[in-house]
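Journal club prep, notes for RB
We'll compare a predicted complex against what the paper describes. Inputs for the calcium ion case:
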Amino acid sequence: MSTKHKIILDVDPGHDDAMAILLAYKSPAIDLLAITTVAGNQTLEKTTLNTRRVCTVAGITDVPIAAGCDRPLVRPQTIADDIHGESGLDGPRFPEPTVPLDPRHAVDLIIELLMKSDGDITLVPTGPLTNIAMAMRQEPRIIQKIKHISLMGGAYGFGNVTPSAEFNIYADAEAARIVFESGVPITMVGLDLTHQAVATPEVVERIRALNTPVSEMSVALLQFFASTYKKRQGFDAPPVHDPCAVAWVIDPAIMQTKHVRVDIEIHAEFSYGRTVCDLFGDSPRPANALVATKLDFGRFWGIMLDALKQYK
Ligand code: BDR
Ligand code: CA
């Protein structure tokens, strides 16, 4: 019997989403059942094309890629081209993608995989939560079937798109609210954690030294990411958010977490999209998420490098 963790990765590539795909596919601890795409960092058309581009370079030909929702549930669409560029994945030069797109809608594929599962699939969303919320609304029986959701999103400290809100939650806060209120156990890997997962020059050199098409693509991605993070937010090295949510599935001990109540703000003028995290136990509402606080930096980049080394 396989002891691998079965996951569905829901992405909006996105430089760090690309790194999450690379980690998930080659980690020996993960069985990657599907990659689903959502509008987020860029339009759905672009995030889907980018997923196929990354999978083509990486030789990921045996995992279905399905496109999902092209806009948030309620609010107007917002993108992050200031960080990820016009294509959503600026930096590397990509060959024409050859991996096909699965004809199924991502929401249908998520439902299908969950309904025929033994309740052993973890969802790893690293973009806005539109597809996951839609799947929960379309087929509520999946809620009992989801083993866990390890998501990149939110913050108990500062936001990165407004002072209060992190991009993935802000981009579709109504969807986030559905997911956080679903009762499914959640690990919230937010900015407080991911800002510790920086790709320092030393890390980038270790990746470059692998000297493969995937390492070359990764270095180009991280260099572009470094330039926009420097310009936009003054970072000396870019935070590689999304693989952290995959890393929690691979090795939960890689980060410290706190089990608390997280509520999603959808009404406020200045804090729309905030993940209100009850770190001090003031809320009467039950805890619904493990909120990540501290990352083991060395171990994180260790598993990332181990995965990247598998690409020839
Ligand atoms: C999140 O927003 C996106 O820009 C990144 O891909 C990441 O998922 C960070 O706030
Ligand atoms: Ca993302």
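Talking point for the session: The chain has one domain: 5-308.
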